[in-house]
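Dear support,

Our group has been running a series of protein-ligand predictions, and this particular one with zinc ion is the one our PI (initials K.S.) wants archived with full inputs and outputs. We had some confusion internally about which version of the output was final, so please treat the block below as the authoritative record. The input we submitted was:
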Amino acid sequence: MELTFVGADHEVTGSCHFMSACGKRFIIDCGMEQGPDTYMNQDIPVDAPKIDYAFITHAHIDHSGLLPLLYSRGFRGEVYCTDATAELCDIMLKDSAHIQEAEADWKNRKAARAGFSKVEPMYTSQDAENVLKLFHPLPYHEKIEISEGLFVRFIDAGHLLGSASIEFWLSENGNEKKIVFSGDIGNATKPLIKKPEYISEADYVVMESTYGDRDHKQPEFNDFAKALSKIMTETFDKGGNVVIPAFSVGRTQEMLYFLRKIKEEGLMERHLDFPVYMDSPLAVEATHVFNENVADCFSEEALSLINAGKNPIGFKGLHVAVSSDESKAINFDKTPKVIISASGMCEAGRIRHHLKHNLWRSESTIVFVGYQVPGTLGNTLLNGAKEVRLFGEDVTVNARIENLPGISGHADRTGLIKWAKAFSPAPVSYFIVHGDSDIVDDFASDISKETGAKAYAPYSGDTFDLLTGERIREGVPAAPAKKKAHRLSSNVFERLVAAGKRLLHVITGCEGMANKDLGRFADQINALADKWER
Ligand SMILES: [Zn+2]
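Confirmed final output from the archive:
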């Protein structure tokens, strides 16, 4: 019964934990690293074909985004998550694959001009389609036997539609242990979705610590709606547009919730019939997923609206743009309007067209509602840039730029400590992950003081024996390797090696098969080897 830390250790993104228990090998989350990379992640300790299950806490790409890569390396096991997570992964993994393919295309056009060889995408749309067929959605709150001695239960983490903390009951040779993975813990003041639930029993807890060092200083729910109403009134008075860059899944639906509230409660003195354009095919699909998972995931307030016959994220005057013609038409129409588009940090996507059409207009306003990573166009605009480059053109910034951070999706320090202290009695150990390197160690010692339990912030590669609670292998923190110029093409070689390993795995499983079949299989492998041996 072992637990190995793989990703999001002394880092925020790339969540992945590996377990070997009850005769099975499985991972909890399979996330892509995004943004700054502090430490190299160790590989999952076994090859992809030998992994029996992947359990996914929620659909955010830093928790699910490498599943298609795992498939391309030979994973054929089962993927377990909640219904809503499976539905969101269906659109998000396909979207992520498109991004990988588009990036490779762009690099290949550049490489062709420079005379370099072609690169391959990290994974393809086909890999995404294939791994999605391995998904087995499970309901919240039901303790389910996955295999002999291995039980799981998904509990609402209140972070994103479908998000979960996962409880595992492990029974091996008469020894029983319970381990809980927090996933991302939600913020109880977030609108639309349910609040995070608490768990009271565990021997071990693996928990996130994104905001382990601070409490949110964010507007109260109603203050946010009022602040947004004021900006909209002032902008519409001048005849301008309000452009909101927002992530398609989660933040966009939250904005729809606020805009509906503003209209319904008459929070603006005039212009209340303002039109809203949701311009992102992904956001449109995600909004459908939200509307299909109401009973399981919506907050009491949102459910009471539904019971009163209202859609919490729908209203008169909401238009959606799916095709690029529909998107272009938005800027031909001169009616002052709200435009919500992706990406949330203005790095790619249709939002860049809307910025091009509105940044030069002094009557328009750009409202940022989420964190803007330094170096992104969103961050540049927030820092007061007077001119930015879009589609090869310099665009003067005359528009008003506003920062109105929405309600965070993550629990703050007080929320995290409350979640950790719900375990009674305290577990043997807490493992603190998913936080910046300078936060996790301090938060671990705080949790230890608060609960009296051991708490430890692991590095990638650290392995613990869950029967004794002792660390049996130490991960060595290593700085990330400098990006190789052709990192993507080396990925194709890794893929081939993985395919070879998978073949060996299949061969081993053939022991005992009829000699006739074994002979035929050997002939086919030899024919393939003859074809490729150089
Ligand atoms: Zn998340």
